[in-house]
Write a structure and sequence with these properties.
The complex is a heterodimer. By secondary structure, chain A is mostly helical. Chain A has helices at about 1-30, 45-50, 60-70, 85-120, 125-140, 145-155, 170-200, 205-210, 215-245, 250-255, 260-270, 270-300. Classes of the chains: A mainly alpha, B alpha/beta.
């Protein structure tokens, strides 16, 4: 097991390296640069700025310089927000995204699973159709539709929540983005859970459990649900990585100062270090959460053992 | 004697998309205390659904009517709580699928202890003692360690023993066994049957045996019910029914045992395929930074010579390497050793060199449901090989060949534009055979071609294969674990175990005078009813 963990962590290094390399050069191939858009900068001053940030060097030299700094844990200064380093920007934005993302994930896992199990237990009955309709709707409605609707109904009309802004993370500000983020995930979890639960309830060992006169609770929860959770575990890892690293659309619509906002601002302004930092952040979280979900999978299913 | 279970006018209906389907139309069955009855019938006869209906275990769209009297209680229409007080305690069941009937996520101990605690007042440690005792009773080795094992760490036979232990732990009055040995190898089958018979003697419960295998009925049952299309067509003492069957269907069932022997080809017949010292090794595990791969010898130095018109039967239990050997001989798997086809060495042939020979050597697989593409018509399926091997042939000529091939396997050629799901299992296997013979091959590998079929259908396929062989002077490699079929089909037999050859010889030598102990066990398990 330890050996497996060690091996997985070790294989993460070349993966990260590859991601960093590809994104670095892709970004530099794209036309424009961080200081191209500002008009009125005299060429001498622009050259001066570029020298300070080493942007006058050949790209490969910049690449190795970046790798070298990164090896020391330095993500570099932001090119646009002059007084901040990328690390400082993340220190502000990441907690916000993690907070919203993890609540959204929790909400979708708990409510989604419950809906899925309920639908499976009432397979082809009214409740099943109702939940399937709801879930299909939930996963087809894009967030840029649900977010304004939530703002309109609960913000403007009912005045229960803030329409935008973070307001130090008070509930009335956070609930809008959390629900918007959770809805599509919740719908997907519900559909996955329904499918795997229907399959689990038809398994031969469930027939055995029923034939042995076990209680409904034991049949459903102990014997069917544990196995049915496996696809959810596989799904939840990458999904959680996506949620906690911030959603561009939701954070923009609700004016939330999270990683997603930082990423889009960085990309639009060619803020090279900020974009690279965000890419690395998302990659690290994705690798980490995939790893965690694989470990969790082995915990639920004894047939999977890593050595 | 007093009946334990009395089924009166049982009807089982399923509500399906095609409307209401009656699985059991009207069945009356009595099980007396301590006796063993068998319910015999082919797949789809309703024999399983009858008992499932009585026990409240039907699928959600199924409904049972009638009276299932256990003492003076009617199981049908009973509340779930009342039913759960009987299921698992007074009446228990074991099933056909030992590999999947246990929950893969819990230990054997956990699964054995749960129903014991549910139906008794025993505390955890006393229930554990009871579970241990049961495992010892069903002759599981190292029961203490096995309590902590997961199902996937055990073989099919062991899992079925665990199922029996679970079913008998609460000392039931009736054990219903639904094809409990069908999925097991013959020698394991014999062990499980013996175990069940001895446990019945020891514990005195009544048994209902649901089976399609008349050998088992003869061996184990006092009385027998024959079911067909949802109805009981004949009932009586086993000896009487076997000696003097009254119903036509029973007669046909008893007559379905494959019979006859094949005579060997003339000594002058040319050699079609020969392999000497064929070996296949699989590497298991290994990989990036992992431990080194383990080598598994799937086929370990087998030699054989197949002549024109000959049928070599390859027998052995699952995992013995039968299919792997056949695939290696056709160069479908990388193998070591020398392989000759029609006098030419094909050992080092690459894909392109093999292609023209593929036409000469065809395969028919076990699973008639999985081996035909569901999205192609029968005509398309059987002519696909012609398009590859005889690309110059016109569409009309191909169609003509398809008609001929279908006629040869006795399928109405006008049905060639239908899809596989519109045919029965036996018809599909005929289509698979047509797909092979349309290319006019010299050799056909038959990989368990009759194992998934009912006895009666099996007999028809065996007859068909024999006729085709005679008419076209075909050579067969016939892979099977079913010795009765091999006895009727082959003139030469190779017995395999763990990838190696145990014994080979003419069908008379192997079947009637086996030399090796393993072969003798195999024969005893298969034929001594």
């Amino acid at each position: 097991m330890l050996r497996y963990v060690f091996r997985r962590l070790l294989t993460a290094i070349p993966t990260l390296f590859l991601i960093i390399t590809i994104s670095f050069f892709l970004m530099h191939i794209a036309p424009g640069g961080p200081f191209n858009m500002e008009r009125g900068i005299p060429p001498e001053i622009k050259a001066n700025i570029e020298r300070v940030f080493h942007l006058d060097e050949p790209v490969w030299m910049q690449y190795f310089r970046y790798l070298g700094n990164l090896a020391h844990g330095d993500l570099g200064p932001s090119y646009i927000l002059i007084n901040f380093s990328v690390a400082e920007l993340f220190a502000q934005s990441l907690p916000v995204s993690i907070r919203i993302g993890s609540w959204a994930m929790l909400l979708s896992l708990v409510v989604g699973s419950a809906m899925g199990v309920l639908a499976a237990l009432r397979h082809n009955k009214f409740i099943d159709f109702f939940i399937v309709t709801l879930a299909t709707g939930g996963s087809t409605l894009p967030t840029f539709v649900t977010a304004p609707l939530i703002q309109l109904i609960f913000g403007l009309t009912l005045k229960w929540i803030w329409i935008g802004g973070w307001h130090d993370g008070e509930l009335a500000a956070a609930i809008g983005p959390i629900v918007t983020l959770a809805l599509p995930q919740l719908a997907t979890v519900a559909r996955l859970m329904r499918g795997s639960m229907i399959e689990a309830l038809n398994a031969h060992h469930i027939r055995t459990a029923r034939a042995m006169g076990l209680s409904d609770f034991s049949v459903v929860v102990k014997h069917a649900m544990r196995g049915a959770l496996l696809p959810i575990v596989s799904y939840a890892g990458p999904a959680a990585a996506g949620l906690v690293t911030g959603s561009i659309i939701v954070e923009t619509i609700f004016q939330i100062p999270g990683v997603g906002r930082a990423f889009i601002d960085g990309a639009l302004n060619r803020d090279y270090t900020l974009v690279m930092g965000t890419v690395i952040l998302i990659a690290v979280f994705t690798i980490l959460f995939n790893f965690l979900s694989d470990l969790l999978y082995a915990l639920v299913d004894p047939r999977v053992r890593y050595d | 004697m007093k009946p334990v279970l009395e089924l009166k006018n049982i009807k089982v209906n399923f509500d399906t998309l095609d409307g209401n389907v009656a699985a059991v139309k009207n069945a009356n069955i009595v099980v007396k205390a301590g006796e063993t009855i068998a319910i015999v019938g082919e797949s789809g006869s309703g024999k399983s659904q009858l008992m499932m209906g009585a026990m409240g275990l039907l699928a959600a769209n199924g409904k049972a009517e009638g009276e299932a009297l256990f003492g003076d209680q009617n199981l049908i229409g009973m509340s779930k709580d009342q039913l759960n007080a009987i299921r698992g305690e007074k009446i228990t069941m074991i099933f056909q699928e030992p590999m999947t009937s246990l929950d893969p996520l819990y230990t054997i101990g956990n699964q054995l202890i749960e129903p014991i605690r549910r139906h008794t007042n025993l505390d955890r440690s006393a229930a554990r003692e009871c579970a241990l005792e049961m495992l010892t009773l069903v002759k599981i080795k190292e029961p203490e360690r096995r309590l902590r094992s997961y199902p996937h760490e055990m073989s099919g036979g062991q899992r079925q023993r665990v199922m029996i232990a679970m079913a008998l732990a609460n000392n039931p009055q009736l054990l219903i066994a639904d094809e409990p040995t069908t999925a097991l190898d013959v020698t394991v089958q014999a062990e499980i049957l013996e175990l069940m018979a001895s446990l019945q003697k020891k514990m005195g419960m009544a048994m209902v045996f649901i089976t399609h295998d008349l050998g088992i009925v003869k061996r184990i049952a006092n009385r027998v019910y024959v079911m067909r299309k949802g109805e009981v067509v004949e009932e009586g003492d086993t000896t009487t029914v076997f000696a003097k069957p009254k119903h036509e269907y029973t007669k046909a069932l008893l007559d379905a045992e494959p019979s006859g022997r094949k005579s060997p080809p003339s000594p002058k017949a040319p050699i079609i395929l020969s392999g000497s010292n064929v070996r296949v090794t699989f590497n298991i595990g290994g990989g990036f930074m992992g431990s080194p791969a383990i080598q598994l010898k799937a086929v370990d130095g087998i030699s054989l010579v197949l002549k024109q018109g000959q049928t070599i039967g390859i027998v052995g239990e699952s995992g013995s390497g039968k299919s792997t050997l056949a695939r290696a001989l056709l160069r479908l798997l990388p193998a070591q050793g020398a392989i000759n086809f029609e006098g030419r060495s094909i050992t080092d042939f690459d894909k392109t060199q093999m292609r023209p020979l593929r036409k000469q050597a065809q395969i028919v697989f076990q699973d008639p449901f999985g081996s035909l593409s569901p999205r192609m018509t029968v005509g398309q399926i059987i002519t696909e090989g012609l398009i590859v091997h005889e690309p110059a042939m016109t569409k009309a000529a191909r169609d003509l060949r398809a008609i001929q091939a279908l006629e040869e396997v006795q399928i109405d050629p006008t049905q060639r534009n239908r899809y596989p799901h519109e045919f029965s299992g036996g018809q599909r296997q005929r289509i698979a055979i047509a797909r092979a013979i349309i290319l006019k091959p010299k050799l056909i590998v038959l990989d368990e071609p009759t194992s998934a079929l009912d006895r009666q259908v099996q007999k028809q396929i065996v007859d068909l294969l024999r006729d085709l062989q005679k008419a076209n002077d075909l050579s067969y490699l016939f892979i099977s674990h079913d010795l009765a079929v091999v006895r009727a089909m082959a003139d030469f037999v190779i017995v395999m175990k763990d990838g190696a050859m145990v014994e080979q010889g003419s069908v008379e030598d192997i079947m009637d005078h086996p030399r090796e102990q393993y072969t003798r066990n195999l024969m005893a398990a298969a034929f001594n009813g």
